[in-house]
Amino acid sequence: MASLDMTEILLETYRLADQIIESEEVSRYLQLKKQLREDAQVQALIREFQKKKERFEECQRFGHYHPDYHAAKEEAEALQRRMRKHPLIAAYLEAEAVLDQLLHQVSRTIAHSVSESIKVPANDPLDGNTSVKRCGFTF
């Protein structure tokens, strides 16, 4: 069996990374991310959500016993639902999910080519292993 040339493996890794960077998925994701940063309405929604989230986190420190806990939670969740309906945010979240899936497939392909028993983490909110962080806040 030939020994592994780590230099060649790293070069192939960089080539793969370059291919991913040049992909349509990354291009769309970066385009939408730029649009999010430049859209005043979206930025106002994000700032408003961050304030609601901070308020809820403060209430959450005391749990259900805090007098404003339920109101703060509902306000944050309502704004989060409203944000997800915004066309630009919805498009960004979809592009992010597509890119995340691509990266997960690449990771899984590499890992499983070594052994099927290697676990590959994913940003699957249904999985329960990780939270998903988007637009600077966690969904």
Write the layout of secondary structure elements.
Blueprint: H1 6-21, H2 24-38, H3 40-60, H4 69-85, H5 87-114, E1 133-134, E2 137-138
Antiparallel strand pairs: 1-2
Could you explain how this protein is built, in words?
The chain has 139 residues and is mainly alpha-helical. It has a single domain (24-138), classed as YheA-like fold. Helix content is 70%, strand content 3%. The protein has helices at residues 6-21, 24-38, 40-60, 69-85, 87-114, and strands at residues 133-134, 137-138. Strands 1-2 form a two-stranded antiparallel ribbon. Helix 2 (24-38) packs antiparallel against helix 5 (87-114) and helix 3 packs antiparallel against helix 4.
Total domains, how many? 1
* Cα-to-Cα separation, first versus last residue: 47 Å
> Which geometry do the CA atoms define?
elongated
| Low confidence ranges | none
Number of strands: 2
In short:
With 139 residues, the chain is an all-alpha fold.
Keywords:
139 residues, mainly alpha, YheA-like fold, two-stranded antiparallel sheet, 5 helices, 2 strands, 70% helix
